[in-house]
Write a structure and sequence with these properties.
Helix content is 53%, strand content 9%. By secondary structure, the chain is α/β, with parallel strands linked by helices. The chain folds into three domains: 94 residues, Fumarate Reductase Iron-sulfur Protein, Chain B, domain 2 (Orthogonal Bundle), CATH 1.10.1060.10; 111 residues, Rossmann fold, CATH 3.40.50; 118 residues, Rossmann fold (3-Layer(aba) Sandwich), CATH 3.40.50. α4 crosses α7, α5 packs antiparallel against α7 and α16 runs antiparallel to α17.
Length: 417
């Protein structure tokens, strides 16, 4: 029998499942297929069968675990307090380790993402490819084209934030706080408007910002794909952020924040350096609501208020437990009318690589989100996850004829005096 170390460590989690089916309520993939293999309960039973030697690790079994958005709806719904997502990601890692290695994923997880120079070279090539695709008419032969509509994706920037900004950004006025900003790959290379908004708001509140030059990918793509050795390259982040004395490590990406705070202690071990980093991680919105709100000065506004709704990223609301802060901010901003959409915590269907592998399913899962946005009557959707932002932007473009999707920081910055 194989030695499934990661799964065996979660034997108690597996045994917590009493097959009640509570996890099926609100599970995006189960709602889509109504197949037991697409429920958390079904996947936990598959993991148990793998652990006990009743199933062998192969591509077909990996497909069943891959077809999960790790949205943590099951964790929230489980009456027994189990954490099926931990079991699912552990099962992925066991199968990934046992199967022949894919040279492409190995290149991405172990060579590109942990290496800023290599990723920069790849981004330059991808930018050329993106320009070519943008000029081509919609065709069934192009990727992610459905119904003659191209997928809406952000533009890859010619330079990263760290190519543009210095390592230390001084605050406005007397320093009140010092933070390190973990931008993540998306804000660094595509959604730079988010990063600029975050930095300008922090600076306006008297916060000194550190942009560590050695920051690399947080490791989420490798971790959720099952390549734990590839994800461990995130060790570089420990050494990039450790030299700086800061009050917080601020994130504007739900997944990055959740991985840094909750996954790093499991991935990199119970070391003081890891504990020190994870305990300082805070979501930008939480920091503003808790510590910075009274330090911000806003313009006086008149006229019709901007109607804004908010989408809860799964890794932020269920992972980092940040739900109230964005609503407090949006409800108090001058010139903004905050409206709650129906089921704001429902997964949008993005989930990083899920929408690349299962684009049609991602669109079908996300259709309800597009309808909820339309029914809210909001002109703008605020969120705090670049993957969600990309997915919802695509959904609105496809189903609602367009609409603005921004990070909450962008709305705050726009209203600053």
């Amino acid at each position: 029998m194989r030695n499934y170390t990661a799964l065996r460590a979660l034997k108690r989690e597996i045994d917590k499942c009493v097959l009640c089916g509570g996890c099926t309520a609100g599970c995006p993939t189960y709602d889509l297929s109504r197949h037991e293999k697409d429920s958390a309960r079904g996947r936990v039973m598959l993991a148990k069968a793998l652990l006990e030697g009743e199933l062998e690790p192969d591509g077909g079994l990996m497909e069943k675990f891959d077809h999960c958005l790790t949205c943590m709806n099951c964790v929230e719904a489980c009456p027994a307090g189990a954490e099926p997502v931990k079991v699912i990601t552990a099962a992925r890692s066991e199968i990934y380790r046992a199967m022949p290695k894919n040279s492409l994923t190995g290149l991405i997880f172990r060579r590109l993402l942990p290496d800023r120079k290599a990723l920069g070279s790849f981004a330059a090539l991808a930018r050329i490819g993106q320009k070519l695709l943008n000029h081509l008419p919609p065709s069934q032969y192009l990727p992610f084209v459905r119904g003659s509509v191209k997928r809406k994706v952000p533009r890859i920037a010619p330079k990263t934030l760290r190519d543009i900004y210095p390592e230390i950004l001084p605050p406005k006025g007397k320093p009140f706080m010092r933070v390190a900003y973990f931008t993540g790959c998306m804000a660094d290379r595509t959604y730079q408007d988010t990063a600029r908004a975050v930095m300008e708001v922090l600076i306006s509140a008297g916060v000194e910002i550190v942009l560590p030059k050695g920051e690399v990918c947080c490791g989420a793509p490798a971790w959720f794909a099952g390549d734990r050795d590839g994800a461990a390259a995130a060790e570089k982040n420990l050494h990039a952020f450790n030299p700086y004395t800061v009050d917080y490590i601020v994130t504007s990406c739900a997944t990055c924040g959740s991985v840094l705070k909750d996954i790093y202690p499991e991935l990199l071990g119970p070391r003081l350096l890891v504990k020190k980093l994870s305990e300082k991680v805070i979501d930008f919105q939480q920091l503003v609501a808790d510590r910075l709100w009274d330090r911000l000065e806003f313009k006086e506004t008149d006229g019709k208020p901007l109607k804004v709704t908010y989408h809860d990223p799964c890794h932020l609301s269920r992972g980092m437990k940040v739900k109230d802060a964005p609503r407090e901010i949006l409800s108090r901003l001058p010139g903004v009318e905050f409206v709650e959409m129906e089921k704001p915590c429902a997964c949008c269907g993005g989930a990083g690589a899920f929408s690349l592998k299962y684009y049609d399913d991602a669109l079908e899962i996300g259709r309800q989100k597009a309808e909820s946005v339309a029914d809210s009557g909001a002109a703008v959707v605020a969120t705090a996850c670049p993957s969600c932002r990309m997915q919802i932007g695509d959904l609105l473009n496809r189903y609602n004829g367009g609409g603005d999707v921004v990070h909450t920081a962008a709305i705050i910055r726009h209203l600053l005096r």
